[in-house]
Amino acid sequence: MNKTLLILRHEFLQTAKRRGFIVMTVIVPLIALLLIGVSQLVSGIARPTVEVMTIGYVDELGGFQQYTSQGNITLVHFDTPADATEALVNGDIKEYFVIPSDYISNGVINRYTLEKQLAASSATTTAINNFLTSNLLAGKVPEATVARIEAPLNLVSTRLTETGAVAPEQGGYGNLIIPFVFGILLALSIIFSSTYLLQGLGEEKENRLIEILLSSVSARQLLTGKVLGIGAAGLVQVVVWAISTPLLLNLASSSIGGFISTIQLPANFIVLAVVYFILGYLLFSVISASIGAVSSNSREGQQLIGIFTIPLLIPLWFTSLSMLFPDNPVWVFFTIFPLSAPVEVIMRLGVSDIPAWQLVASIAVLVLSIIGILLLTIRIFRTYLLMYGKRPGIGEVLRNLRSG
Amino acid sequence: MRNWEEAADMLAVEVSHVAKSFADKVVVDDLSFSVAQGEIFGLIGPNGAGKTTTIRMMMDIIKPDSGEVTILGERLGEATKNKLGYLPEERGLYKKLGVLDSIIYLASLKGVDRLSAEEKADELLNQTGMLPHKGKKIEELSRGMGQIIQFIVTIIHDPQLLILDEPFAGLDPVNTELLKGMLLDLRNQGKSLILSTHQMNEIEELCDRILMINHGRSVLYGNLAEIKSRYRSNSVLLEFEGELGEVPGVTEKRTHKGYTELMLDDSTTPQQVLAHLMSRGMVINRFEVATPPLNEIFLRVVGKAHE
């Protein structure tokens, strides 16, 4: 078998057998499952009780006699606040409110309750709101108009294509979820894979195995085998996550409701996700390899690679900004800048369309960066892989690259 | 496949005018030497002399700035790597990997298929008494045991040329003898061995020829016996019965435990002394032209360079 393939297979198996790798692969879906479970539990507890609730009211203004049944809430009239307080203390009513005589001029309603709470529940507020509106408008406008005044807007948006037909892919917040989750997973997977590469190189450098390896294979074979082997393991991880996501979302839809079923992914999403995982991983792995070659141990290498992972994560920090201002030129920069491109492109796909030229530019810049850094890395690899002492300074590395 | 005779003529290693510098420091400077097939060649020199760099250039781990390295008649390349076995000075293996898996993986990188590697590994583990540890992880082994495993990795692909950097360091006397026996066996099978060590007694015991380098340059090169005679201090070692008395040409007598060393003046040869003693009818149990130990030569040569 080809030596590069042998190294690839070895690195793939060793990575896939790592406890950390298995835990990461399994734990991400498990954590998601746990979160769904917790949210289901919470929403189950918080679900409004179906039993009829009774609220008292004192009408000091007058004219509020009708519409005392609002859904599950029944409103009971009291003559004076003292009567209402007594009923409240006795537990006959949950709470009561007073409509003061100057209500029309300032809109103030005084509410009294025994419970400690941040604010009145939305069910109560809606019930009181509709009770007041209905009574205020009673007899003045038709019933149907009252209903419209209570809920005037039910917005249904449809996106059209340039030809005027209904676009197959509609926007909306639902569509942001999968790109956002995927952006996070992509960043995690790229960071973990390149960390494994760094750790592996660090270990081989520390225990001097690198000399035996390089006396058997070339630096290029070693580098290619390692990058592809660990990358293949990372791809398996991403695929496991990608497969488990729809299953989990189905589970989740029972608690979050029909929201998830409205999600439609851009048609090119899966293709671009795979392309950007591969390119992003390759970029970070060649960077890791050169860092691994110059740093004296794996701990030092991990600190250095940290600097490069910051741009990768930037698009995640600015999610809300990119939702609010999807057309800002800053996003174009992050789309084309190679370190941030993988996550930025995936995130932007959920928010808006990306012009084709930006995608082409982004992929081209990524590919060129990978090739450029790879060529540098092979040089650095040969020079520094066998130096165990002090980590060389940036200046020294550059000098050696020029002379080497 | 070459025929045997041609192969025997071919040099195992030919290094000609090789130089290498790192940054601005010259590490190896115009170095030339050759190693024949079926010999054990000693590579010695003080720390930082350029031994490891020279070895790495022979292994194609690093490329020389100038000069040429030929291994087994071929220019260095990926194809020659399978014929080389290298035991680096500082060693380690994948700690979490099993003994057999480590051997098989590293053997596969030398072009040995899994089945033959497994077979050969069993044989070598058995020969070194390591068979009971076959299923263990590397991190469970003692330092010496790890070293034996590493030696097995070095020879499992039946290399034509072996380069061993301090192979005896850290081994107990039993394992040292075992290793020496295996090295001599390999030599007798026609393999070439390059031994780099600071232990001069090992060199004297095993090597046919040596190269001593200092500051990246060759300072001593050739047959070990010839080098020793070149550095001999015109004296003879003598074990005898009876009285020695006056011997012409002897300037000084030093009595050691069990023997006497006679220092000769410049015009006297050991043969003349022997003839004189024989003519006196003395009973002589041992007569030896004294050669200095390699250690002393090493100190003299390196010391001179330091002055």
* CATH architecture call of the largest domain in chain B: 3-Layer(aba) Sandwich
First CA to last CA of chain A: what distance? 32 Å
Overall shape of chain A: it is elongated
Radius of gyration of chain B in whole Å, from Cα? 23 Å
Going by helix content, strand content and strand pairing, the class of chain A is: mainly alpha
Largest sheet of chain B: 6 strands, mixed
Q: Which whole number gives the mean pLDDT of chain B?
A: 85
Which descriptor suits the 3D outline of chain B? Answer: globular
Instruction: Tally the structural domains of chain B.
Output: 2
Total strand segments of chain A: 5
Mean pLDDT of chain A: 80
In whole angstroms, the N-to-C terminal distance of chain B is 51 Å
Please state how the strands of the largest beta sheet of chain A are arranged side by side. 2-3-1-4-5
Which tags fit this structure?
heterodimer, A: 404 residues, five-stranded mixed sheet, 6% strand, B: 307 residues, alpha/beta, Rossmann fold, Alpha-Beta Plaits, six-stranded mixed sheet, globular, disordered N terminus
